[in-house]
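Q: what sequence does this backbone want?
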């Protein structure tokens, strides 16, 4: 525990200790005033008893603080608390009588006929101290539980963030390798085109660096990054690739996780170039549905590729699936499995992810709702 946390805990104890005893003094004083004779001696007696109770419970806190109750069972803890409460109650009664014998005319002598009153006072004070102890331990355990919950929540958040970062970084190497190969080939053929390609790549990588610590970005920024991606791919495939964007302006401010479109675009290029008649056509359609749900679809001509040898299974629509039900890429890996995991982390209970094969094309759609459970999560 940090020094700041310890200081806050000590400050909190003294605040509650003072306020609690003041409240009890007022309530007990009102009771005496209403049902007993309340004179100057009674006021002194009340102040002395409450003051001693305050001091003794403050000292008892130090005792409790030094005992490691975490290694004790509940019965042992209760027995020790009761014994300490009885002991403190005796001190409270005799200390109170001693002090009162100085400040009041009443001589608090330990005469035999007064032992009944002493035992009664000890019993009452024991009950009071047991109640104080119960409140003390309840607040102590509550604080520890809250601190642990906060620590656990922070650890889970960091773990989730690390996992999301790991998944996101899986998107880049294959694309980056191909882009660098294209630049190398262009340097000797067309330096102007190579320079333009480097600019597009730097803008795409800048987006990756700027958003690396962001959980979400406006969709408009994501779309701009994907335009850079396709500009690079068009330099590579030239007339073999045609891309069309249709974007609802209202959707551009919708917050999405970074690189939500990239794996879909990469998947379209990967499968389309191997199965589509040239040129490969890729359509990206983005719209808002009822101002609450983002619909993002990437359609490419061609079909899904079957990889029976790599453990793939063909689904009812003819798309090869891995063990989790997503199309495999050429390396037996899955860009779409990556996006599925990231969607599950980022939008639990409020997204839908579907893969549909039509007669001459494949459409992959992501729907994200602002409200949880507004969409039933399902996969093709």
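A:
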């Amino acid at each position: 525990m940090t020094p700041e946390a310890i200081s806050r805990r000590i400050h909190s104890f003294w605040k509650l200790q003072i306020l609690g005893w003041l409240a009890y003094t007022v309530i007990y004083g009102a009771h005496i005033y209403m049902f007993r004779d309340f004179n100057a001696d009674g006021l002194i007696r009340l102040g002395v008893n409450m003051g001693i109770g305050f001091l003794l419970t403050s000292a008892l806190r130090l005792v409790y603080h030094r005992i490691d109750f975490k290694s004790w069972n509940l019965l042992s803890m209760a027995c020790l608390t009761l014994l300490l409460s009885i002991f403190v109650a005796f001190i409270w009664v005799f200390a109170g009588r001693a002090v009162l014998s100085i400040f009041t005319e009443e001589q608090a002598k330990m005469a035999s006929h007064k032992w009944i009153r002493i035992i009664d006072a000890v019993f009452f004070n024991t009950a009071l101290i047991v109640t104080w102890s119960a409140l003390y331990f309840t607040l102590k355990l509550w604080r520890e539980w809250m601190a642990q919950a906060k620590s656990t929540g922070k650890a889970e958040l960091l773990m989730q963030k690390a996992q999301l970062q790991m998944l996101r970084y899986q998107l880049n190497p294959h694309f980056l390798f191909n882009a660098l190969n294209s630049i190398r080939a262009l340097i000797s053929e067309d330096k102007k085109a190579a320079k333009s390609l480097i600019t597009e790549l730097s803008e795409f990588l800048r987006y990756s660096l700027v958003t690396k610590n962001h959980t979400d970005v406006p969709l408009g920024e994501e779309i701009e990054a994907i335009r850079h991606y396709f500009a690079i791919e068009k330099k590579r495939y030239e007339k073999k690739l045609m891309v069309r964007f249709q974007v609802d302006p209202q959707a551009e401010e919708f917050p999405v996780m970074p690189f939500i479109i990239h794996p879909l675009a990469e998947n379209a290029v990967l499968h389309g170039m191997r199965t589509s008649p040239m040129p490969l056509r890729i359509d990206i359609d983005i719209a808002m549905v009822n101002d609450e749900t983002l619909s993002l679809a990437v359609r490419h001509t061609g079909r899904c590729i079957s990889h029976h040898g790599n453990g793939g299974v063909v689904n009812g629509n003819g798309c090869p699936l891995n063990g989790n039900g997503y199309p495999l890429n050429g390396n037996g890996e899955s860009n779409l499995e990556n996006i599925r995991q990231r969607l599950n982390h980022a939008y639990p209970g409020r997204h839908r992810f579907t893969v549909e094969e039509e007669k001459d094309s494949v459409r992959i759609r992501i729907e994200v709702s602002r409200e949880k459970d507004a969409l039933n999560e399902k996969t093709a």
